[in-house]
UniProtKB/TrEMBL annotation:
InterPro entries: Aldo-Keto_reductase, NAD(P)_OxRdtase_dom_sf, NADP_OxRdtase_dom
GO cellular component, one term: cytoplasm
Domain of life: Bacteria
GO molecular function terms noted in the UniProt entry: oxidoreductase activity
Residue ranges of every copy of the NADP-dependent oxidoreductase domain listed in the record: 15-307
Name of the protein in question: Oxidoreductase, aldo/keto reductase family
Keywords assigned: Oxidoreductase
Keyword Nucleotide-binding set for record: no
A family per Pfam: Aldo_ket_red
């Protein structure tokens, strides 16, 4: 597995990371044994970066990772943890909390659930509009000094917030959605990160399975985030799946799958970008890892662009009610 530096201040990580969210119910029921087996397979394949959030399954995901990592060397892995999202007993969402005392509280619980003495990259999941980002980052910086956190990351914030955060403490990476059909970061956010030496950990590289080449109409089930996602709604879905079929023809010419081409495209956008694959089954993980063997030249990239032009996706990446609260969607 090729290793890369996560920004100028971050750790060295494998060129592909594993996003573990789907193992804790966000996409409907998951198989616990298969999830753990997938984490094991990822580590054995050379993946070092495991991404989670303390609100994935209300702590379930962190405890799952703890179980999967039992008895394995800690120093060869990097745990990336998002915090701050507030949930209720019914599983609903009720905002974000980036207050310094909340940061310390969230961190303490994550350390306990994960069974570790430090977290490699700690990041607010979203911007708390009621707390200056300087205060949130300053609180994490205190935890870096105390030895509980190694590096500070960001998630789904815009260029102005990135600059303000980086003025307080070095930022290793920005975690943000980036794929063939989610390219909003290219205008302001990605250039800002590159100017400041901040890496990108790209989630949603297959747009939650939509451009995996495996998605079928009406596949979303109860409890699956995608049942509410605009891009999976009737009318939008058909247009988006047509893009997938165009991409499938490009993939066939390369002897690759649609998923492999989509992941390889993200990786080809720069060595400072680490795709996070959200596989929760070993077969999907194996397919994703096969993207490393796909080499895209200028002709290939042009063919992909013709198949899936920028801004060709139908529907927004999140429901409007969520988009209005996302700092990364603020175009100021």
């Amino acid at each position: 597995m090729q290793m890369v530096s996560l920004g100028t201040s971050g750790p060295e990580v494998a060129a592909i990371g594993l996003g573990c969210m789907g193992m804790s119910g966000m996409y409907g029921p998951a198989d616990r044994a298969e999830s753990i087996a997938t984490i094991h397979a990822a580590i054995e394949a050379g993946i070092t970066l495991l991404d989670t959030g303390d609100f994935y399954g209300m702590g379930h995901n962190e405890m799952l990772i703890r179980e999967a990592l039992a008895g394995r060397p800690r120093d060869k892995l990097q745990l990336s943890v998002k915090f701050g999202a507030l949930r209720d007993a019914a599983g609903g969402w009720s905002g974000y909390d980036g207050r310094p005392k909340a940061v310390r509280n969230f961190l303490a619980y994550s350390l306990q659930r994960l069974g570790v003495d430090h977290i490699d990259i700690y990041r607010p999941s979203r911007l708390d509009p009621d707390v200056p980002i300087e205060e949130t980052i300053g609180a994490i910086a205190d935890m870096v000094k105390a030895g509980y956190v190694r590096h500070i990351g960001l998630s789904e914030v815009g260029a102005e917030t990135i600059r303000r955060a980086a003025a307080v403490h070095p930022i290793s990476d920005l975690q943000i959605e980036y794929s063939l059909i989610s390219r909003g970061i290219e205008d302001q956010i990605l250039p800002t990160c590159r100017e400041l030496g901040i890496g990108i950990t790209a989630y949603g590289v297959l747009s939650r399975g939509l451009i995996s080449g495996h998605w079928q109409k009406d596949a979303a089930r109860s409890g699956d985030f995608r049942a509410m996602s605009p891009r999976f709604q009737e009318g939008n879905l058909e247009q988006n799946l047509a893009l997938v079929e165009a991409l499938r023809r490009v993939a066939a010419d390369k002897g690759a799958t649609v998923a492999q081409i989509a992941i390889a495209w993200v990786a080809a956008q720069g060595g400072d970008i680490v795709p996070l694959v959200g596989a929760r089954r070993r077969d999907r993980l194996s397919e994703a890892l096969g993207s490393q063997a796909v080499r895209l030249d200028a002709g290939d990239l042009a063919a992909i662009e013709r198949a899936v032009p920028k801004d060709a996706a139908a529907g927004a990446r999140y429901p409007e009610a969520q988009l209005v609260h996302m700092d990364s969607e603020n175009r100021r």
